[in-house]
Specification:
Blueprint (H helix, E strand, L loop, with lengths): L4 E4 L2 E2 L5 E5 L2 E6 L6 E9 L3 E11 L25 H18 L7 E2 L13 E9 L4 E5 L19 H4 L2 H9 L9 E6 L4 E6 L6 H14 L2 E5 L7 E4 L7 E4 L4 E4 L10 H15 L6 E5 L7 H5 L4 E6 L2 H13 L6 E5 L7 H5 L6 E4 L7 H8 L8 E6 L2 H14 L3 E8 L9 E7 L2
Parallel strand pairs: 4-6, 7-21, 11-12, 16-17, 16-19, 17-18, 19-20
Antiparallel strand pairs: 1-5, 2-3, 3-4, 5-6, 8-9, 8-10, 10-11, 12-13, 14-15, 20-22, 21-22
Helix pairs in contact: 1-10, 9-10
């Protein structure tokens, strides 16, 4: 590692690293905040940039706080605990604005107030890795170490609900008793309104003695175990067999959403409810309107929209998810107002989109790759293109790219945009944007 140099931190990048310049070269400094003066030592040097870590803070930012979690700096789950929450949100808002400005060449007419909520104990979904490491005392259960495939030696996690954080040590102890502890690479955590589920990913069957240990843990700690032998669709309940269904609630819309523990759902139930509420206000569905929900998943937005609109069409790439969406619509008494289709939206064309019929408005919630082909198809519909688009994004760069297409090529106006702090203490930026045609 190079000798430390003094740096003035000018800004932060999209990975929450401090950004400084010296002799025309960009230096990315882990854990540094804007306005700070630090001593930092480079651990990676390239022609145009260097990565560095702080060796001393000479002048601290007023936004700097002491990280609450003892695993911070080792665990790769969080990267921003050294900044207070308002600063974290401001950084994410700046990331969104910069992406829109420099990548999309667009600017929203208004910036929405950031959606944020509890900063701790918010993760209702998590994937914990499991490793048996003799040098560290046996079985480890937790997130990966920062920039590493190693599992952090964790006994608590402050972004998990306390009742799950408190299970980390008992889980280590229980798994150490199993004959297949070297064949159990991960545990999926899925928490619902009435039940907590732990899915054991197993690469070999449990023995009878293993089953005794797992059942005893479930009874003692009040959780339900599922077993997953191969892909997500192989996950099945193990113990107890009789347990409440996994659900999350959207009370504003009188929607209860059943899900399986390996389904995609938002990790932060409270923020998700607020996000759905904001999306519906921006979309403003009317009783006479036909609305499309693209990348609809289990119906997280579809069903609330159906409470307000005449008809909603949900489109999703996974046929099993489409089947689950239909079930959820029926569960909420909305089957008569919803239709679902399975389609690869990354290969959308004018013809495939037109075949779905005309939409007054649409909501899209794509994965990180964005929705370029779908939006191109919308643009080619002429007067039949939706007049309003609400875009929920998990990637500010692809949102910016797609916004550029909508605004610069298709004549939409970017009326508003804002961030959603779905993952406090991480650099992950969720956002929402509203586009309208004149």
């Amino acid at each position: 590692m190079a000798a430390p140099i003094e740096l003035l931190i000018e800004s932060v990048d999209y990975e929450a690293r401090g950004v400084a310049h010296i002799e025309g070269k960009v230096i990315f400094v882990d854990g540094a905040l804007p306005g700070e003066r630090v001593h930092a030592a480079s651990y990676r040097k390239k022609a145009k940039f260097e990565n560095a870590q702080i060796t001393a803070i000479l002048q601290a930012s007023s936004s700097r706080v002491t990280p609450r979690c003892p695993n911070y700096g080792t665990c790769g789950g969080c990267s921003m605990q050294h900044a207070d929450v308002p600063t974290q949100v401001a950084i994410k808002q700046r990331v969104l604005e910069d992406n829109l400005r420099y990548l999309g060449r667009v600017a929203p007419e208004a910036m929405l107030r950031a959606i944020h909520g509890p900063a701790w104990e918010y993760r209702y979904r998590a994937r914990l890795s499991v490793r048996d490491v003799a040098k560290k005392g046996g079985v480890l259960v937790g997130f990966h170490e920062k920039k590493s495939s190693f599992v952090a030696d964790m006994r608590e996690c402050h972004v998990l609900p306390r009742r799950i954080s408190d299970l980390l040590t008992p889980l280590r102890e229980m798994i150490s008793l199993l004959s297949i502890r070297d064949r159990l690479p991960q545990i999926e955590v899925a928490l619902g309104s009435r039940v907590d589920v732990l899915v054991l990913r197993i690469l070999a069957p449990l023995t009878q003695e293993d089953e005794v240990h797992v059942k005893a843990f479930a009874e003692l700690h009040g959780v339900q175990f599922w077993l997953q032998s191969k892909g997500p669709d192989t996950a099945v309940p193990f113990w107890p067999l009789q347990a409440p269904a996994l659900t999350y609630e959207l009370p504003e819309f009188d929607v209860s959403m059943p899900f399986n523990p390996t389904d995609f759902t938002q990790v932060n139930h409270q923020i998700n409810a607020t996000l759905v509420s904001r999306a519906l206000r921006l979309l403003d569905p009317q009783p006479d309107e036909r609305i499309g929900d693209f990348f609809c998943g289990l119906g997280n937005f579809t069903l609330p929209i159906a409470r307000r609109a005449r008809e909603v069409v949900g489109v999703e790439g996974s046929a099993p998810l489409v089947a689950r969406s239909r079930e959820n619509a029926a569960h909420n008494g909305l089957a008569h107002k919803t239709t679902f289709h399975a389609a690869n939206l990354f290969e959308a064309t004018t013809e495939t989109v037109a075949a779905l019929g005309r939409f007054d408005k649409v909501l899209i919630d794509p994965p990180r790759d964005g929705a370029m082909e779908l939006l191109k198809a919308f643009g080619s519909l002429g007067q039949d293109a939706p007049r309003r688009i609400v875009y929920v994004s998990c990637s500010p760069s692809t949102l910016a790219r797609d916004a550029g297409l909508l605004v610069n090529d298709q004549g939409y106006a970017l009326k508003a945009a804002g961030v959603v702090n779905m993952f406090p203490h991480t650099s992950h930026v969720e956002s929402i944007a509203l586009f309208e045609r004149p």
